[in-house]
């Protein structure tokens, strides 16, 4: 509220999922250096602290706790589950704030925020409505990461990738003559995703590969569905 040019940073709010790690300490140090430097320049600086509810991550933690008690979220009901969630927020969030203060973060603790604060909730809903009315938010069908436990879509950040040995499936696509007759010749295609075969619209070959030059422009039949598709050239 002092005179002078304003400079504001909202810290990336840590998730209330336990304790801070070295990544938080590194990020905090970078922001703190910038904030203190801007203050030395005489600017009116606000570094706004806060924590993030991290709903899916917290839900997973609580469900693990319930499992250790031989219970599920369905057993205790919505209200009791939310009560436990808020209790966890106070426990974990309080620990995180205490750690940030011990680090010496130069923030305005009188303005501390939580992502589920009432005013922030209202702001999110208002922003969502504005974006929706501008057709910038819409519903569509996409491939998503799905968690069978929480029955919810999850982001790539929540997924632990695992390398597994795959398998190459080989299919013979019968060649079709100009008169439309099926020939005794085949074009063999290998894929790790055989389920996509039914949606094939063309078979692409390298135009610089002498083995396939003669097939460019010829048609083949998609196995199982007997649909004719062209063989096209694609240098990529």
Automatic annotation (TrEMBL):
Pfam families cross-referenced by the UniProt entry: tRNA-synt_1
Entry keyword Aminoacyl-tRNA synthetase: yes
GO CC list: cytosol
Example GO biological process: valyl-tRNA aminoacylation
Keyword Aminoacyl-tRNA synthetase in annotation: yes
Catalytic activity: tRNA(Val) + L-valine + ATP = L-valyl-tRNA(Val) + AMP + diphosphate
Residue span, Aminoacyl-tRNA synthetase class Ia domain: 3-164
EC assignment: 6.1.1.9
GO MF assignments: aminoacyl-tRNA deacylase activity; ATP binding; valine-tRNA ligase activity
Entry keywords, A to Z: Aminoacyl-tRNA synthetase, ATP-binding, Ligase, Nucleotide-binding, Protein biosynthesis
Stated name of the protein: valine--tRNA ligase
Lineage of producing organism: unclassified sequences, metagenomes, ecological metagenomes
């Amino acid at each position: 509220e002092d005179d002078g040019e304003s400079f504001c940073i909202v810290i990336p709010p840590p998730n209330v999922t336990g304790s801070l790690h070295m990544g938080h300490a590194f990020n905090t140090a970078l922001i703190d250096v910038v904030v203190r430097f801007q203050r030395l320049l005489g600017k009116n600086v606000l570094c706004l602290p806060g924590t993030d509810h991290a709903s899916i991550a917290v839900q997973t933690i609580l469900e693990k706790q319930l499992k250790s008690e031989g219970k599920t979220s369905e057993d205790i009901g919505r209200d009791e589950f939310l009560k436990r969630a808020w209790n966890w927020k106070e426990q974990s969030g309080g620990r995180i704030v205490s750690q940030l203060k011990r680090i010496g973060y130069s923030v305005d603790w009188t303005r501390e925020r939580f992502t589920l604060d009432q005013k922030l909730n209202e702001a999110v809903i208002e922003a969502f409505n504005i974006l929706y009315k501008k057709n910038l938010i819409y519903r569509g069908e996409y491939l998503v990461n799905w968690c069978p436990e929480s029955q919810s879509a999850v982001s790539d950040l929540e997924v632990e990738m695992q390398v597994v040995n795959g398998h190459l499936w080989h299919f013979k696509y019968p060649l079709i003559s100009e008169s439309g007759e099926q020939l005794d010749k085949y074009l063999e295609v290998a894929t790790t995703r055989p389920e996509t075969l039914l949606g094939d619209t063309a078979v692409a070959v390298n135009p610089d590969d002498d083995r396939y030059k003669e097939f460019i422009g010829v048609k083949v039949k998609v196995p199982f569905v007997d649909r004719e598709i062209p063989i096209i050239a694609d240098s990529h």
